[in-house]
Write a structure and sequence with these properties.
By secondary structure, this protein is of the alpha+beta class. It has 9 helices and 15 strands. A hairpin with a 2-residue loop joins strand 2 and strand 3. Helix 1 (13-27) crosses helix 2.
């Protein structure tokens, strides 16, 4: 039996509501359905995305969001897209509709938005997206436990008034890389609004600011959302890890999870593991590809940029 033809396009308001109702089965967050749909409609995070749907007749059967980003490649800043919330209605699964929608979105973004790179963070077996041309970056998870170790001290950071210095640290942190996520000012301002209630701290050494950390604490289990330091040497990253462990110790945080560049360690309070979810995957939408070194540099993405 032939599958009904899928009509792929950018979502209308009504189709967006239907798509959000569909994904409720996975990301409902214990809200009532109607409240959940309204929450997504009003979320500044979801408002950043362009939402695409695949319809059969008048029914939304597949959907995803495209979040605009920029990738710096050897100094050239290229438009990129981060795909999130890929979903197919249970009644229409195993028909290739999600793959068809992703292919349409890639073509539409390349043609109308000059997008050169596509990224996603897979929560399923990455072999599925590999069949669509996506490659995996060996980007680990980190678990940092509280410890009395020698790190930089911390002091509170006011993200509304000190954002310029944060941006300077982030940009400086990536000077040695040929491939990294470029954050325009408008994106920084979005991050400030989205994460206004999180904990931001300067890293201090000899009364000098050496960088910053951004931690989201949820009842003692925290996420290292973002950070920036002078460079990516083993020494500097080791000091950064010790600073987070010391910070957790003083803040009564039991564990700090997140994304962190892999470093060599024998410390019991610092552990790296292979990601089972949020697996970083990438695809070139042009004839330009990434080198093996640049693929490793994708491990330096921050959790705050996850969609």
């Amino acid at each position: 039996m032939t599958n009904p033809q899928l009509d792929c396009h950018q979502a209308s308001h009504e189709e967006k509501c239907a798509a959000f109702a569909n994904v409720y089965e996975f990301w409902g967050n214990d809200m009532p359905l109607e409240q959940y749909v309204q929450w997504r409609l009003n979320s500044i995070h979801h408002q950043r995305a362009i939402w695409y749907v695949g319809t059969v007749g008048n029914a939304v059967v597949a959907s995803l969001g495209v979040f605009p980003m920029f990738l710096s490649d050897h100094g050239d800043v290229n438009p990129a897209m981060f795909i999130g919330a890929v979903h197919t209605h249970p009644d229409f699964r195993k028909r290739g509709y999600a793959a068809e929608l992703i292919s349409y979105v890639e073509q539409d973004q390349e043609a109308h938005y000059d997008v050169r790179w596509s990224f996603l963070f897979s929560d399923i077996n990455p072999a599925y997206y590999a069949r669509l041309g996506y490659q995996t970056s060996n980007a680990p998870n980190v678990c940092i436990r509280p410890a009395e170790v020698d790190g930089w001290s911390t002091e509170p950071l006011d993200i509304t008034s000190e954002i310029d210095e944060m941006i300077a640290f982030y940009d400086t942190n990536h000077l040695g890389q040929t491939c990294f996520l470029h954050r325009p000012r408008s994106y920084w301002e979005f991050l400030v609004n989205k994460h206004a209630k999180d904990q931001f701290s300067w890293l201090i050494d000899s009364d000098q600011r050496r960088g910053y950390i951004h931690v989201r604490n949820n009842d003692g289990l925290a996420c290292l959302e973002d950070f920036a330091v002078a460079d990516y040497t083993e020494h500097t990253l080791g000091r950064l890890a010790r600073s987070v462990a010391s910070y957790a110790n003083h803040k009564n945080i039991s564990e700090v999870h997140g994304w962190f560049p892999p470093i060599t360690t024998e410390d019991s309070w610092l552990q790296f593991s292979q990601r089972q979810t949020e697996i970083t995957m990438w695809k070139s939408l042009s004839d330009r590809s990434l080198t093996s070194d640049q693929i490793q540099e994708l491990a330096y993405f921050r959790h705050i940029d996850h969609v």
